[in-house]
C-alpha cells in the first residue's frame, strides 16, 4: 500500500530483523543493494531494537513489541500496529502527502464486498496456524484453508480481482498470504494438500499483482524464509532453510499471467 500510494518519501521505512532471542532488531544490511526492501538501521530514532522505540512513548511501554508499526515522530507514539488498519490508513488518510492520491483501493461502492471477502479470507488463512497442536485441529484447519483456496480458484477464473476488475484492499491482504504460501506455509505449517502453483488461476492472480510496478521490490523472499525457518518458529529446530521453490523465484513470477482481459481497471499506478 505504501508503494502503490506513492508514500515512500513521506513515510520512510526502517526494516527490523527478527533476533535469535525473539526480539526485533535493527542492523545494517550486508551485501549488494538489490533494490528490494531489506533490513536496515532505525532511521527515525536511531534505536537498536523495536522495544526501545516502543519505550519512547509517553509513559513508556514494556509490553509486546510487534511489526508492522507506523511511528509518529512528532508525538513520539505508535500510530497502530494492526496490518489491516495500516493499509486503511495508507489508502485514505495520507493523501495530502501521497504521490498517487487518486488511487482508492476501498471505494464506497465496493466496501461491502471487500468486507465480505475479508471475512472469508482472513479467518481461514490464519486458522491453519492455530490448528497445529492436535490432529483434530489440524484436520479442521486444513480443510477450511483448502476449501477457501478452492473457492478462490473458481472465482478468479472469471474475475480479474476479488471484487471484479478493480484491485482493492482485500487483494493486497490475500497477496501477502499467497506470496508466502509455497515458501513457508506448504512445508513448515504442513499445508501439503496442494502447492499454490498447482492452482492455475490463483497463481496467475499472484503473478498479476506481483507484476504491478514496484510491488516486486517489496517482496524479500530470502528474509521471509529466514524468518520462518531460522528464527520465529520452534517448528524447525535444525534452522535449515530449504531451497526456494523455482515457482517462487522472481523470474517465474514475472511470467505472463494472461489475465489482462479480466480487468478493465484504469488506475494509473506510480512508476
Automatic annotation (TrEMBL):
Gene3D superfamilies in the record: 1.20.1050.10, Glutaredoxin
Recorded GO MF terms: glutathione transferase activity
Residues in GST C-terminal domain copies: 69-246
Pfam families documented for this protein: GST_C_2 (PF13410)
Cellular component GO terms, alphabetical: cytoplasm
Alphabetical list of InterPro entries matching this protein: Glutathione-S-Trfase_C-like (IPR010987), Glutathione-S-Trfase_C_sf (IPR036282), GST_Omega-like_C (IPR047047), GST_Omega/GSH (IPR016639)
PANTHER family for this protein: GLUTATHIONYL-HYDROQUINONE REDUCTASE, OS02G0814800 PROTEIN
Protein's name in the database: Glutathionyl-hydroquinone reductase YqjG
Amino acid at each position: 500500500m505504501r508503494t502503490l500510494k506513492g508514500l515512500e518519501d513521506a513515510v520512510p521505512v526502517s526494516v527490523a530483523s527478527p533476533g535469535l532471542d525473539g526480539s526485533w532488531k535493527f542492523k545494517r544490511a550486508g551485501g549488494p543493494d538489490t533494490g528490494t526492501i531489506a533490513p536496515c538501521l532505525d532511521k527515525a530514532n536511531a534505536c537498536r531494537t523495536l522495544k526501545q522505540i516502543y519505550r519512547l512513548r509517553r509513559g513508556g511501554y514494556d509490553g509486546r513489541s510487534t511489526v508492522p508499526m507506523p511511528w509518529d515522530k512528532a508525538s513520539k507514539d505508535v500510530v497502530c500496529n494492526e496490518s489491516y488498519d495500516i493499509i486503511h490508513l495508507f489508502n485514505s488518510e495520507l493523501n495530502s502527502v501521497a504521490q498517487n492520491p487518486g488511487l482508492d483501493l476501498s471505494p464506497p461502492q465496493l466496501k461491502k464486498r471487500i468486507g465480505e471477502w475479508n471475512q472469508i479470507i482472513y479467518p481461514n488463512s490464519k486458522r491453519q496456524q492455530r490448528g497445529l497442536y492436535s490432529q483434530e485441529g489440524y484436520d479442521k484447519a486444513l480443510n477450511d484453508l483448502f476449501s477457501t483456496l478452492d473457492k478462490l480458484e473458481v472465482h478468479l477464473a472469471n474475475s480479474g480481482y476479488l471484487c471484479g476488475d478493480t484491485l482493492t484492499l482485500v487483494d493486497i491482504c490475500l497477496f501477502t498470504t499467497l506470496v508466502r504460501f509455497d515458501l513457508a506455509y506448504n512445508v513448515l505449517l504442513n499445508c501439503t494438500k496442494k502447492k499454490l502453483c498447482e492452482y492455475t488461476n490463483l497463481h496467475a492472480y499472484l503473478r498479476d499483482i506481483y507484476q504491478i510496478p514496484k510491488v516486486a521490490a517489496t517482496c524479500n523472499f530470502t528474509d521471509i524464509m529466514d524468518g520462518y525457518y531460522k528464527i520465529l518458529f520452534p517448528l524447525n529446530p535444525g534452522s535449515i532453510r530449504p531451497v526456494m521453490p523455482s515457482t517462487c523465484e522472481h523470474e517465474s513470477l514475472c511470467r505472463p499471467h494472461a489475465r489482462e482481459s479480466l480487468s478493465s481497471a484504469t488506475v494509473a499506478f506510480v512508476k
